[in-house]
Amino acid sequence: MSIVLIFMRSRYLFVFATTLMLSGCAMSEEMRRINETNQAEHVREAGRSTNLTGEQLFIRSCNTCHPGGSAGVGPSLENLEKDFPNDAKLKAFLRKGKGIMPAQTKDTINDSELDELIGYLRNLKF
Ligand code: HEC
To answer: Which residue minimizes the CA distance to atom 10 of ligand 1?
Structure first.
C-alpha cells in the first residue's frame, strides 16, 4: 500500500497510470465491437444456409447442365478424380466458375454446403 502511495505522489506516474487505464477501456470497447461484428457475420452465414444435402444442391444448381453428372450443356463429370485430384482445387473451380458455368459464391452455397456438394460429386457413379 505504501508503495502505491509513493508512486501516486509522483504526478507524472499518476498521469501515466490514468492514460494506461483509459486506453485499456478503449481497447476493450474495440474488442467488443469486433466480437459483435463477428457474431453478426455468423448469424448472416447461418441465415444463408439452407441445410440442403449434396444431392439436393446438385439438382438445384448443377443438374440442368450436367444431368445426373453426365454430359449436357456442360461436360460429363466422370473425369472428376483425374481433373481435380484434391478438394481444394475442385472448390476453387466451383467458386470461380468457367465460361458459361456460373460461379458459386458463398451467397449461393456456403462453405458447409460446398462440402456436402463435393461429397456428392466424389460419389457419383457412372
Ligand atoms: C449453365 C450451365 C452449367 C451449370 C449450371 C453448371 N455447370 Fe459445370 N460446367 C459447365 C460447362 C460449360 C463446363 C465446361 C467449362 C469449360 O471448360 O469451359 C463445366 C465444367 C464443369 C466441371 C469440370 C469438369 C472437368 O472434368 O473438367 C465441373 C467439375 C463442373 N462443371 C461441376 C459443376 C457443378 C458441381 C455445378 C453446380 C454447382 C455446375 N458444374 C453447374 C456448365 C455448367
So the answer is: 74
CA 112 to centroid of ligand 1, rounded, Å? 20
What is the model's pTM?
0.73
Domain limits, the chain: 2-48, 54-122
> Ligand 1: which of 66, 86, 109 to mutate, judged by most atoms within 8 Å of the beta carbon?
66
The CATH number, out of the four listed (1.10.760.10, 1.10.10.60, 3.40.50.2000, 3.40.50.300), of the domain defined by the range 54-122:
1.10.760.10
State how far the alpha carbon of 104 is from the alpha carbons of 7, 13, 38, 45, 108, in Å.
62, 58, 23, 15, 6
How do the pLDDT tens digits run along the chain, 126 residues long?
555 555 555 666 555 555 556 666 677 888 899 888 888 877 776 666 678 999 999 999 999 999 999 999 999 999 999 999 999 999 999 999 999 999 999 989 999 999 999 999 999 998
- Asked if 61 contacts 104 with a C-beta cutoff of 8 angstroms, the reply is yes
